Amino acid sequence: MDAAEERSRCEETHSDARRGLLKALVALGSGALLATAGAAEAAINDQPPRRPGANGKRYAMLVDLRKCIGCQACTVSCSLENMPPIGQFRTVVHQYEMPNASGNPDMLMLPRLCNHCDEPPCIPVCPVQATFQRDDGVVLIDNERCVGCGYCVQACPYDARFINHETQTADKCTFCEHRLEAGLLPACVETCVGGARVIGDILDPASEISVRMARHRDEIKVLKPSMSTNPHVFYIGLPDEFVDHVDGQAAVRLSEGH
User: Fold this and answer.
1) pTM summary value
2) Shared domain check, 163 and 70
């Protein structure tokens, strides 16, 4: 075999090797893409199982609007405790003007935060399962997994989520779960001047929140019950006008009977 033939054969061999490598890379990429798409579809369509939390408990918060004076101590203490970026808040107190019976305006103070729902619409829309719920009802975000897509922000009917400007991941109230695990109250509850906020285990009939809710059973309301999310932030003194028509609308609606 002369040099020209040997060179031609080597070029053909190298070309075949390159084609084989390209085919392998394409197959590998396609497989990874399908696997990712499959995982995303499963996450969107299926509610992930709850993760372990405080065993045997179901945390909830009760807000007595008759005691809220709108001092914003809860907002400030939450910011100091959890350090969200300046201008972003995990809890806020909105103020509304309402005409009273004499026609003069009254002020309504309405604390807002994540409702830690039993049917949280923010969880099934997450394509990477970064948002999850614990057995004790607390809804949390795994910031190592979150990609900042904002689907959960759009799905929340309570306007309780935001994309953190610094981390570029989803952020929200966590009931200060790190404090609960240490036997402490959430920052907002601990600093509430009027004692308007109470948190506790609603599965324990002797807990303060259970006793108060039993005492005011006929006065307990939640925000947007028509969304069928079963929220676990309860209000005393919430006017009917605010039950379904408060600011913060979900871009992703829940179907009837969900």
Assistant:
1) 0.77
2) yes
